[in-house]
Design brief:
Strand content: 15-25%
Radius of gyration: 27 Å
Distance between the termini: 66 Å
Largest sheet: 8 strands, parallel, barrel
Number of helices: 16
Structural class: alpha+beta
Strand order of the largest sheet: 14-15-20-21-22-23-24-25
Number of strands: 33
Shape: elongated
Helix content: 10-25%
């Protein structure tokens, strides 16, 4: 072994200083290695800028406001637009770094070079200055640290779960455990790790983490009614390659990301995948009045979409719009995603306001956007989930038409709207709701998109929680300080007879039933289901449907509600297990041995549903197929009655030897779920008012 190690050492390239600059020995660096990389004898620093004339490396002692060293890049350390040099004699634990660039200042042409600005490395793997949540920068600006990526993942490679078999659980890292008294490290990656047994009991197999890239939660902070409001959600990226250090339970100098990696490894060991919510549509640098953090000072005219007079296009609604289809930006985004997959073993990405990813440099939509296509065909991302929020703040709505290249899935906003409408009693929406439950074949051509383009959801971070969906007729965002004018007014919600919390027994019972209806339908829909953390135990935001700024009990999950809503939790966990047992729902079953079509729609009489009727009280979807793994027929019948009266429904006849069995019935107060489904002896069944029944065919 000793001989092999010596041989390997001899094969490694040996760098030697070629000159001395301001007291530091340097040599030309590795031009293709973006960012800062530590080697045994030196640290390599590489950045690029098309417009800069000169570039300086600044070295700081930890937490000190002024640099202790300034090292200009010599001319022989530049090739093309790339500055790269190796600096010898540095201990990565003893310094932080940043850059200063000089060049033309021509705002109308988008050129904003100014040597006064201290700029963070666009490829920084760790960001310093704000590692404690809610505490302001203590150095006057962002700087970076060099990270050792030497985490040991072990030899096992977790099996990738097919998209159609995922059950996604969207959560906020801080809010998920901040109020959980059973957790030792609340509000952190370590806190989520402690809750993995809970996630297993719930039955989800993927967590979608709201933004965990480094962001400034204090940007735009203000006070309303004595409460400090901040950027709690985190859709305001400071650095795309660095994890948010304030989500770590302990300080990780030069080891930033280890706690997150430990969480991901533990989730994988428990067959739970990790999807990151990523924000490439804008940055924290804002508009003309915003700060210079990184991109503005490196190449403002490349990284952002600019108007002819040098102003910022604002298709994001956040001040600026990233110029995603410029070749330089394409490379940066691709490098970023590859880094998170290779170094953090991330399983997928959900792209916030993804329609911006398909806009040209002038803001116009592109038919085949290079970035979207590149990500679809990237070899390292080949088995990584790509999920688009297929709209943006500029009015571009692409649900069903996002350029997919047979790789991209979409958050299906039409599923949310149509199914919400029908389940709350909008009987006219039955036809649209049935299409959504069937996987939205009317908007997703399976020949082009496959069977699994739709990510179905009724709730997410943006909007009402499931409890609030059936507890409020209107949003109540007064705590945000904007006069209740922010947030969507189109909620398709219903308060069940009382606005907000109430002690009225009938209203409370109805809300519990409506929540169970939602879980039954969501988990019996073709496509990938997703729901918001806390929905399974009736978490509330008190009617706030835009809690982006609420770092308090409005947004944090209230775990004391689990006891009160144990019946909802049990129903949700039962339905996640039910879905996993039925490949006819997920779409990976073979042809039905009973001769039934893969998906069919029914009314109060089987095989008959008049979509021309203005209102449809009761509707059903049947999924049928052959379970090749279990070698048996798999047939599920989902019955929905959003009407306020019970309805008798005739059931489809089954071939000899088969009968219908009740698996779930939200209208049965005594027994809503059936661990051993109960056989129906009659050819019809009573679907109670505002309830859902789930049946499965089985041999008698």
């Amino acid at each position: 072994m000793e001989g092999a190690g010596k041989m390997l050492e001899e094969m490694m390239p040996r760098w030697v200083p070629t000159e001395n600059v301001n007291g530091f020995e340097i040599c030309p660096g590795l031009y293709r290695d973006e960012g800062a990389t530590a080697f045994q004898s030196a640290v390599n620093f590489t950045v690029h800028s098309k417009g800069a004339v000169t570039c300086e490396l600044l070295l700081f002692h930890r937490k000190e406001p002024e640099p202790y060293a300034v090292i200009p890049f010599p001319e022989n350390c530049r090739i093309g637009d790339v500055f790269s040099m190796m600096v010898f004699g540095l201990d990565i634990e003893e310094f932080e770094y940043a850059y200063r660039l000089d060049g033309p200042w021509k705002p109308k042409e988008g050129l904003l070079f100014d040597k006064k600005h201290i700029l963070m490395d666009p490829y920084a793997k760790a960001v310093t200055g704000q590692s404690v949540w809610g505490k302001a920068l203590n150095t006057g600006g962002y700087r970076a640290r060099v990270v050792r990526n030497n985490f040991f993942w072990g030899s096992e490679k977790p099996d990738k779960i097919p998209m159609e078999k995922l059950i996604i659980y969207e959560m906020h890292v801080r809010g998920f455990t901040k109020m959980d008294k059973s957790v030792r490290h609340p509000g952190t990656f370590a806190g989520i790790k402690e809750k993995i047994p809970y996630l297993k009991t719930l039955g989800i197999n993927a967590v979608e983490l709201m933004p965990i890239f480094e962001f400034d939660e204090l940007q735009g902070s203000r006070e309303v009614d004595g409460k400090k409001l901040i950027d709690y959600w985190g859709y305001n990226t400071v650095s795309f390659f660095a994890p948010n250090t304030s989500y770590a339970a302990s300080t990780e100098y030069n080891r930033e990301g280890v706690e997150l990696k430990e969480l991901i490894r533990e989730l994988h060991d428990n067959q739970i995948e990790v999807i990151l919510d990523v924000v490439f549509n804008h940055t924290a640098e804002g508009n003309e009045c915003g700060p210079f953090i990184s991109f503005k000072g490196f190449d403002n005219q490349i990284y952002y979409m600019l108007t002819p007079d040098g102003k910022y296009y604002n298709f994001s609604g956040c001040g600026n719009t990233v110029n995603c289809n410029h070749p330089v930006v394409i490379k940066m985004i691709q490098d970023c995603l590859r880094y998170w997959v290779a170094e953090y073993r991330v399983d997928g990405f959900r792209f916030d306001l993804a329609s911006i990813l398909g806009r040209n440099e002038d803001g116009s939509p592109m038919e085949n956007p290079p970035l979207v296509k590149n990500l679809a065909y990237d070899s390292l991302l080949a088995d990584t989930k790509l999920i688009a929020e297929a709209w943006d703040a500029g009015g571009l709505y692409q649900v069903g038409s996002f350029p997919a290249f047979r790789r991209w899935s979409e958050w299906n906003g039409r599923y949310r709207d149509d199914v919400r409408e029908y389940l709350k009693g909008g009987l006219w929406a039955a036809g649209a709701a049935l299409q959504r439950i069937a996987g939205s074949p009317d908007i997703y051509d399976t020949r082009i998109r496959g069977k699994h383009a739709s990510v179905n959801f009724l709730t997410c971070h943006d909007g009402f929680t499931l409890y609030d969906l059936y507890s409020y007729n209107q949003k109540h965002n007064e705590a945000n300080g904007w006069g209740n004018l922010d947030g969507s007014d189109d909620n398709r919600s219903w308060n069940c007879g009382a606005e907000g919390d109430t002690d009225q027994v009938m209203v409370v019972e109805l809300r519990h039933r409506m929540m169970k209806n939602a879980f039954a339908v969501l988990l019996c829909s073709r496509g990938t289901p997703m729901f918001l953390a806390g929905d399974e135990f009736g978490n509330t935001q008190f009617g706030n449907n835009n809690a982006y700024c609420q770092d308090n009990e409005i947004s944090w999950l209230d775990w004391t509600r689990k006891e009160k809503f144990q019946d909802v939790f049990d129903f949700c966990a039962y339905m996640t297990a039910f879905r996993k047992r039925h490949p006819s729902i997920t779409g990976d079953a073979g042809a039905s041995s009973l001769g039934f079509p893969e998906i069919s729609f029914h009314g109060e009489v089987p095989w008959k549903l008049d979509f021309s009727r203005p209102e449809i009280r009761t509707a059903a979807v049947m999924f049928a197929g052959y379970d090749n793994k279990m070698a048996k027929e798999d047939c599920v019948y989902l019955l929905m009655n959003p009407y306020w009266e019970g309805v008798w429904v005739e059931l489809p006849q089954l071939p000899g030897g088969y009968s219908w069995h009740v698996a779930a019935n939200t209208g049965d107060k005594k027994q809503e779920i059936y661990q051993n489904p109960v056989r129906i002896s009659e050819e019809r069944i009573l679907v109670g008012p505002r309830s859902v029944i789930v049946l499965e065919a089985d041999q008698q």
